[in-house]
């Protein structure tokens, strides 16, 4: 009888458990409760930070009016956050090593709440911009550390679950921001777009105190830090982001400010290069890009970031200018792309384990291209309903692309380099957003002018149809001047519609162009324990 018990797995094993083959390694241990609470804390912090990128977009006109900012000045309310965030993200790995993960995140979360309150109480533009810069610096630190927690606190076989949670923040933040900000502005007050961070931040701080162990700071790293790299990142990414965001508005290099910022950015890239050549451990490890998988992931992340941020900006613009939607209605259309995320999140860990990374990313990229191509059928009579199918397709495409790219980014490097890889990967995605917004501004200005001129060329003053139309409009509006203005408005609307079609066409082509990079991704054995990429 004793032998039977032994054959069934031993006295302490569950009845009927299969015995391990002799010499076989024990099964990997699962993460404990504290580890999962740490992942939840990282995910919550990343969601709060990504949400605040776009939560003010739909509230900008109201905020500008109350703090006395012009339309041009008001754009800095959004730009200031993005500039600060994209600057700090690559530095987060080094700051985490200096302060220790728990102390660094507690400091970032506390300051993020404080700067959010400053924004909420702002009565002037300088006060608001100061708060948004502070939000960007501290919120940007919360994004890559979420991936670091997943890579260092979860065993490899459970990382797909953590990656699914983090991927949800990267997708849901930008798409829920406009609708949440619009709802709060129209139903309560724009101030609560910032005050909402107080209860969320308190929950985050509680989770961090419970879940993460204290680590002794390593202030000796400050003495030997890559100061060329630190200064270079701030100058290069900060200057480049402002140039991209403000270049078209300031007429590019006819503006002294744009010329100086371009020079600052170039000097910053030189400083970063010096740091790479002179330090054993530079503050940003660009050598990771030598890994073909990681380089491919970063490149695709830039383009996917362009799609996520570009469409969440372009679609509300079209609906507001052409279809006459208010900010809340536009935000609800953008939110549709988040529905597939909510539906598929429970399935993603299983899909990550069983589907070839290359197959999933290719499928997701093709869906993204399809969704953008479907929106090239817009007309000036289109309403939000025309975006319903394409937004759902885009949501599924983003899920299959981002979830697996997150996984590939972490698996491309050893765990000890996870924070460096996370900083580069997340900076690339946000840089893609900057490229998208800058490109949209340039294309919208240039193509609208071109389409307007082309339309005008088809309207001959000697045309009977044109003369009949103008006579009807003059009779309906009461004067020839009003009829000319009406015709001008119609031409502008048609030209804008054609410009939006061009934007979606370019996004579709961009996605198709980088899709072959999936061939550089290394697949995981289906159903097997993931392995670390080198």
Largest sheet: none
Low-confidence stretches: 1-18, 525-534
SSE pattern, N- to C-terminal: HHHHHHHHHHHHHHHHHHHHHH
Could you tell me the number of beta strands? 0
Strand content: under 5%
Task: Characterise this structure.
The protein has helices spanning about 1-5, 35-55, 60-65, 70-90, 90-100, 100-120, 125-155, 160-185, 190-195, 195-210, 220-225, 225-245, 255-280, 290-320, 325-335, 340-345, 350-355, 355-375, 390-410, 420-460, 465-475, 480-515. With about 525 residues, the protein is an all-alpha fold. The longest helix has about 40 residues, at about 420-460.
Strand-helix topology:
Layout: H1 2-7, H2 33-54, H3 60-67, H4 71-88, H5 92-99, H6 101-120, H7 125-153, H8 159-187, H9 192-195, H10 197-211, H11 220-223, H12 227-246, H13 256-278, H14 292-321, H15 327-335, H16 339-344, H17 348-354, H18 357-374, H19 388-411, H20 418-458, H21 464-477, H22 480-514
Helix pairs in contact: 2-7, 2-8, 2-10, 3-4, 4-7, 4-12, 5-6, 5-20, 6-7, 6-10, 7-8, 7-20, 8-15, 8-17, 8-19, 12-13, 12-20, 14-15, 14-19, 14-20, 14-22, 18-19, 18-22, 20-22, 21-22
Structure keywords:
single chain, 534 residues, mainly alpha, 22 helices, 73% helix, 0% strand, globular, disordered N terminus
Can you summarize this structure?
The chain has 534 residues and is mainly α. It is built from 22 helices and no strands.
């Amino acid at each position: 009888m004793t032998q039977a018990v032994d054959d069934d797995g031993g006295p302490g094993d569950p009845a009927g458990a299969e015995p391990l083959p002799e010499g076989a390694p024990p099964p990997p241990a699962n993460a404990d409760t504290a580890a999962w609470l740490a992942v939840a804390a990282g995910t919550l912090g990343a969601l709060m930070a990504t949400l605040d990128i776009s939560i003010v977009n739909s509230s900008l006109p109201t905020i500008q009016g109350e703090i006395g900012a012009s339309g041009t000045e008001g754009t800095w309310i959004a730009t200031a956050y993005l500039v600060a965030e994209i600057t700090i993200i690559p530095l987060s790995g080094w700051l985490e090593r200096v302060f220790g993960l728990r102390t660094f995140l507690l400091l970032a979360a506390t300051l993020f709440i404080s700067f959010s309150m400053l924004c909420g109480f702002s009565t002037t533009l300088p006060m608001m911009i100061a708060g948004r810069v502070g939000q960007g610096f501290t919120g940007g630190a919360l994004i890559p550390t979420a991936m670091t927690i997943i890579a260092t606190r979860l065993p490899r076989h459970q990382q797909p679950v953590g990656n699914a949670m983090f991927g949800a923040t990267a997708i849901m933040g930008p798409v829920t921001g406009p609708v949440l900000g619009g709802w709060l502005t129209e139903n309560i007050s724009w101030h609560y777009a910032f005050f909402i961070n107080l209860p969320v931040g308190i929950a985050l701080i509680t989770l961090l105190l419970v879940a993460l162990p204290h680590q002794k700071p390593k202030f000796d790293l400050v003495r030997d830090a890559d100061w060329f790299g630190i200064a270079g990142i701030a100058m290069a990414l900060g200057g480049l982001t402002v140039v991209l965001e403000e270049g078209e508005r300031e007429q590019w290099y006819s503006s002294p400010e744009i010329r100086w910022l371009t020079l600052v950015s170039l000097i910053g890239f030189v400083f970063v290069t010096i740091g790479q050549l002179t330090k054993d451990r530079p503050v940003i490890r660009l050598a990771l890009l030598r890994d073909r998988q990681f380089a491919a992931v970063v490149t695709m992340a830039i383009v996917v970031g362009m799609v996520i941020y570009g469409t969440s900006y372009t679609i509300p613009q079209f609906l507001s200018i052409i279809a006459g939607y208010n900010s809340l209605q536009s935000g609800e259309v953008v939110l549709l792309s988040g529905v597939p995320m909510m539906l598929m999140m429970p399935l993603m860990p299983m899909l990550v384990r069983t589907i070839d990374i290359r197959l999933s990313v290719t499928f997701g990229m093709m869906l993204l291209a399809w969704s953008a191509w479907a929106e090239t059928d817009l007309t000036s009579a289109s309403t939000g309903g025309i975006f319903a199918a394409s937004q759902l397709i885009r949501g599924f495409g983003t899920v299959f692309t981002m979830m697996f790219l997150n996984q590939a980014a972490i698996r491309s490097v050893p765990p000890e380099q996870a924070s460096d890889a996370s900083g580069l990967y997340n900076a690339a995605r946000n840089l893609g957003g900057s490229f998208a917004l800058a490109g949209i501004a340039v294309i919208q200005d240039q193509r609208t002018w071109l389409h307007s001129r082309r339309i005008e060329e088809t309207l001959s003053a000697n045309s009977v149809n044109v003369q009949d139309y103008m006579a009807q409009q003059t009779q309906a509006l009461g004067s020839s001047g009003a009829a000319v203005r009406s015709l001008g408005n119609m031409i502008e609307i048609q030209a804008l519609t054609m410009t939006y079609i061009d934007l979606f066409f370019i996004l579709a082509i961009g996605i198709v162009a980088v899709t072959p990079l999936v061939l550089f991704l290394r697949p995981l054995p289906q159903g097997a324990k993931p392995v670390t990429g080198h």
